[in-house]
Amino acid sequence: MKYAKVKKVDAEKIKQLLLEKKYLHKNYGIIKEKEHILFPITDSGAEELSGEKKVEGVDVVEAEGIKKEERYNFLDLLKKVIPEKELCELTKSFDIVGDIAIIQVPKGKERFERIIADAILKTNKNVKVVLKRADVHQGEFRTQKMEWLAGEKRKETIHKENGVKIMLNVEKVYYSPRLSTERMRIAKQVKPGEDVLVMFSGCAPFCCVIAKNSKAKSVFGIEKNKVGHDYGIKNIIINKLKNIYLINGDVKEVAPRIEKRFDRIVMPLPKSAGDFLEYAFMLSKKIAIIHFYDFQREGEFQKSEEKILAKCRELGRKCEIIRTVSCGAYSPRVFRICVDFIARS
Ligand SMILES: C[S@@+](CC[C@H](N)C(=O)[O-])C[C@H]1O[C@@H](n2cnc3c(N)ncnc32)[C@H](O)[C@@H]1O
Fold it and tell me: Whole-angstrom Cα distance, residue 300 to residue 304?
């Protein structure tokens, strides 16, 4: 379920705007956090707010969609055992990947984690496992330690997004359901007959969503994490997709050995995509569209565009920025952004 996350001070103003634009989802309740309000929004509203119609101060995030009645059940369960003052300081939204709920427990509040986990299991019949984020995404593979809290003892699941099923182990492979709108944004741009490359393909969500929702001729993926690559292969089979080709390896080693050239290259590695731009140019057809992901502070998105243009000059490429979009918040005032640009040789 998509939510528009806004600061409490802006909530009333943004609520009016969401009402005016008919973006609010009427069947779901709002979620209150310590400093933010999450308004439930329709899929088309989420798409518009994540794209060119982005509104300052609004982040589109994914959270468990709680039907108005169920919301009271979940909160009622918590209210019975957690003092109101403590309850305010807990995060009441959580990610759902397949049938696994993933919660974040603030430091010092660990004594409530089992209560929250049990309340989630009792009020969300589709959730079978509750895990807790035990650290941040880290390392080359961008994976995250997860601690089991309640339900079935497993970390593997199948998540559905954009018409495809994605199987993964949430601890061993990077995957974020919050990027589903962004994946569809890219898939919609793919023209019939295109050859597409997804660098850093993980368990292949971008590849599957593009192959399923476009008429691409081929979709290639390169992923270094063997576990992620193996899930990618399984996902091609599960989704019965015929035009995806996955390579297990480091982009820097694989790229020089690929003879094929691409119309479109997706670079979903915001921590260090800049280090791989020369490989994207190496694998581009004479004219190609590149989707370059980066983390950038609010108001400083042009720094990513400058980074790309500088690299283009250095490598003697002509580049033209098409647009820069925010794909959601990464941390307070820092966004995951995507610069779509044309590269010509
Ligand atoms: C942020 S994740 C994105 C995964 C996937 N595209 C998705 O959207 O869920 C980045 C991925 O890049 C992979 N990776 C990191 N460095 C790499 C490299 N040099 N070559 C290939 N893959 C790499 C990581 O293992 C990780 O799966």
Answer: 8
